[in-house]
Design a protein that fits this description.
The chain is mainly α and 311 residues long. Helix content is 79%, strand content 0%.
Length: 311
């Protein structure tokens, strides 16, 4: 009982420290907020759903007490959404769902909540959906401006392979897909990290490693269909197909990461170098190569997973 309470308090302290630390720098905030679901998820897996819910509510109340009012709710709504993500992931897995389905259901639930919240904003503000879309695009661009602050912001974005003006256009054009892929990627990363920590801390039996991640083979047909629909000279059809392609590319990125993880383990690359390699995979243009590797794995079976099943 005492050990459980110590674990719960430690996770509470980690969340509060990461929140306060993240407020000091946009770059740090972007990193720490991505790992917000992790303590809640670990508490849920170790101590149960009630402890995870209590942790999320306690953190939310402590943050709200810093500046009571509706303003802070709107300002840190994304932080609360990530706390909810950790609770949903652990709760779904405790009910017998696999990690894949827990991530999918969590993404669908949080995307639906975001859509409902956005619809409420449109209704209350009197804006049109297009005007609200432009406003959200501006907010995201301003956040990136904070991350890449400085006189050489344009050059930094050029290094990433995306000019500033093109970035604004892409955000507005692909905002639905970006919301879904961002949510899915954060959920996937936190589940992967949690699995590693659960093994290190000896909190339960080991689960399948990242190298075993695999997307269903039938998903290639929606990819091909969306690709062909890009050729249709109808703007709405091309808009929908492009967003579908971006969402599906995330799944094949995850599969590509799993393939590369298998190679790194096979050749016994030291853990520090593996960690650096995982970070580099997210950089442009390497993430495109990772997606291609994930797609190619469907036919080439780099990891011999299907042979193992057949045997």
């Amino acid at each position: 009982m005492v050990r459980s309470f110590v674990i719960w308090c430690f996770c509470l302290a980690v969340l509060l420290v990461s929140f306060v630390w993240g407020r000091q720098s946009p770059v740090v905030y972007l990193f720490t907020i991505s790992l917000t679901p992790l303590p809640v998820y670990l508490v849920g897996r170790r101590l149960g759903n009630l402890a995870a819910l209590l942790l999320a509510l306690t953190v939310s109340l402590l943050i709200f007490s810093l500046k009571p009012g509706l303003a802070i709710i709107g300002e840190y709504l994304g932080f609360g959404e990530l706390l909810l993500m950790g609770f949903l992931l652990s709760g779904l897995e405790s009910r017998g769902y696999t990690a894949d389905w827990a991530i999918i259901i969590t993404v669908v639930a949080l995307t639906t909540l975001s859509l409902l919240f956005l619809s409420g904003q449109v209704y209350l503000s009197g804006m049109t959906p297009r005007e609200m879309l432009s406003r959200k695009t501006l907010e995201i661009t301003e956040m990136l401006t904070g991350v890449f602050s400085g006189e050489d912001m344009s050059s930094r974005l050029q290094v990433l392979g995306v000019p500033l003006e093109k970035l604004k256009y892409l955000i507005q054009y692909l905002l639905p897909a970006l919301v879904i892929t961002n949510t899915g990627l954060v959920a996937w990363l936190n589940v992967i990290l949690a699995r590693q920590l659960l093994v290190v801390l000896d909190w339960g039996k080991p689960e399948p490693p990242i190298s075993h991640w695999s997307t269903p083979e039938w998903l290639i047909f929606p990819v091909l269909a969306a690709g062909f629909l890009l050729l249709v000279p109808v703007s709405l059809v091309r808009l929908v197909s492009m967003n579908v392609l971006v969402v599906l590319s995330l799944l094949y990125f995850c599969q590509g990461v799993a393939v590369i993880a298998t190679w790194l383990l096979r050749y016994r690359v030291p853990r520090p170098l593996r960690c650096i390699g995982y970070i580099i995979m997210f950089m442009h243009p390497l993430f495109i190569l990772v997606i291609i590797i994930g797609l190619a794995d469907i036919w080439l079976d780099f990891r011999r997973l299907h042979q193992a099943v057949d045997a």
